[in-house]
Amino acid sequence: MTPNRTDPGGRAPDRSSPDRRGPAQAARVRARLSGAAGSAAAIAIAVLWTLPTAGLLISSFRPEEQIKTTGWWTVPFDPEFTLRNYADVLFGSSSDGRLASYFINSFTIAVPTMVFVVLLAAMAAYALAWMRFPGRDWLFIGVFALQIVPLQMSLVPLLRLFSDGVAIGTATVLPPLDLPGAFQFTNVWIAHTMFGLPLGIFLMHNFISRLPSSIIEAARADGAGHGTVFRRIVLPLTVPALVSLAIFQFLWVWNDLLVALIFAGGSIEVAPLTVRLAELAGTRGNEWQRLTAGAFVSMVVPLLVFFSLQRYFARGLLAGSMKG
Amino acid sequence: MGFDLLSELPKLLWLVIGVAGFLAVFGVLLLAVDRGPRTRREWWQAACFLGPAALLLLVGLVYPVVRTTVLSFMDGPGQAWVGLRNYAWMFTRPEILVVLRNTLLWVLVAPALATATGLVYAVLVDRARYESLAKSLLFMPMAISFVGASIIWKFVYAHRPAGSDQIGLLNQVWTLLGGEPRLWLLDQPLNTLLLIVILIWIQAGFAMVILSAAIKAIPTDIIEAARIDGVSPLQLFWRVTLPMIWPTVAVVLITISVQTLKVFDIVRTVTGGQFSTSVIANEMYNQAFRYGELGQGSALAVFLFVLVVPLVLIQIRSTRRSREAQ
């Protein structure tokens, strides 16, 4: 405990002059009143925060004519529910959304990116924390600084790089990454991995550098190489951190719109749910039977992750919110 | 034509190949790193561990930052030098000035209100009976995408002509109070404020979780001592709670400010930047990727970067300070 913390506590008793004891009764009444007002305020905020989502969820199960003509709050007087909206928006014609394809795209983008970022970040963080080589501290500061860079700074040149390749003079160093069909996911994977690494390395470094040095030095003294130490000691000991980062990275990519818009485009072959939904909201802004069901299709996975893994979710939050 | 699972198989196959291939390379690298020659071992082992990440960062972030900065001094297709013309364009064109004004409005309103709501709620539900349930309710919007949140709120703002039933919650409340149904999203500058509400709705949960942890870290004896003295809950908040968690409040404010500066998804999904609601990030996307004006888009990106840097520097400083205080 620091003096800073005990200070207000130390000062507090000074204020309890005898004349304050008189109106103690009144103070208690006032406290109870403000307690009731406080509860009312808390409930009001909670309702305000829940109602919009509830309205959308209820609407998504209502027949089209009803969504478009009456408010969802009239449901108790005229309950009629259907799964038709979900069937249409998931599996119907492509103008209805065909979100099932985009759902698979979202998975195909988010899962590999999660694996790439977590493992590459863990490796880099281990090197920055436990290996000795010249320039290590500068490298760490550099990676740390990269977290500041807004995505917007990187989009134009990186897209150019993917479409034109890299050439020095006339010699092609990297061919254009102009891939057909499902291979197009590769571009999106690479872009997301690049953008996920600075935060990933930073988070993993926080955990890996705090491992007890006695364990790692003992293993090194026994002749274990860095590869073995990393595989046998570091990875197993940092599982909670790896899981936190994995969840965070997965949700970030699943919910991302900007990177997907630029590196995946809008085609049904690679575009994720977010891109398709934003498109539907723009072109079919009044087709609420599609938008309500579609929005929930995109929210199901994050909500499942959120409610089942809330503990891990909150952990990387403060550092994680810096991303993008 | 309906949905066909067969046509989706190549995607899943490529997913499996991609992950398996990566894991194979990763495994081989870890095994190989211990078997190489013994000369300058530390050096090339570090290269093996750091190389892949360093290469990705160089290509994906370091080079693009330099290139974007250079592009911001060039013309639309990125071929001829134009000096500071793109920056002059940015600060003189009326429609871009509206964009800058909107961004300013976002940064002034969203972080303050999101943090205030989160703080008030965290204090109110602290040690209440259903605390964790109550917190989940406010926190839930953090999990879903900005696009999903935008659709939720677009539905709240939906409009039906006067005389027919309203389907949007806001117009329903508005007409119950005696107003005429309004096209909220066309109404400037109110529409920007309505978009800001969406971000507040998302970020208040973040503020609440972080601030709630800070409140719980205040030693109980301080609170007890104040209570025994007959301090009212409001005095307790202003004189004890708030001063003690102030460093955390500052960090939360700045974190949300950085997020707010970069806001893109909400504007793009709800209005597409029309009706004078565009912000810097959205305008940057339009200039660079829709109109092919790389120079102007890059100038906007650089300006965004310049706005973010001081905020992050302050944040690093106050994070370090609040860590030292613990």
From TrEMBL, chain A:
Q: Where is the ABC transmembrane type-1 domain?
A: 103-309
**Localization per record:** Cell membrane
Q: Which InterPro entries match?
A: MetI-like (IPR000515), MetI-like_sf (IPR035906)
Region (Disordered), start-end ranges: 1-24
- What are the alphabetically sorted keywords of the record? Cell membrane, Membrane, Transmembrane, Transmembrane helix, Transport
Where do Basic and acidic residues bias regions lie? 12-22
Q: How does it sit in the membrane?
A: Multi-pass membrane protein
> Any stretches that span the bilayer, and where are they?
31-51, 102-126, 138-162, 182-208, 229-252, 258-279, 291-313
Q: Name one Pfam family in it.
A: BPD_transp_1
Main location class: membrane
Similarity-based family: Belongs to the binding-protein-dependent transport system permease family.
Q: What is this protein called?
A: Carbohydrate ABC transporter permease
What organism does the record attribute this protein to? Nocardiopsis suaedae
TrEMBL record, chain B:
Q: What is this protein called?
A: Sugar ABC transporter permease
* InterPro entries hit by this protein: ABC_transporter_permease, MetI-like, MetI-like_sf
Record domain ABC transmembrane type-1: where: 100-315
Which family is annotated?
A: Belongs to the binding-protein-dependent transport system permease family.
List localization entries.
Cell membrane
Q: How does it sit in the membrane?
A: Multi-pass membrane protein
What's the main place this protein lives? membrane
Q: Which residues cross the membrane?
A: 12-31, 43-66, 104-125, 137-156, 193-215, 236-258, 294-314
Keywords, A to Z?
Cell membrane, Membrane, Transmembrane, Transmembrane helix, Transport
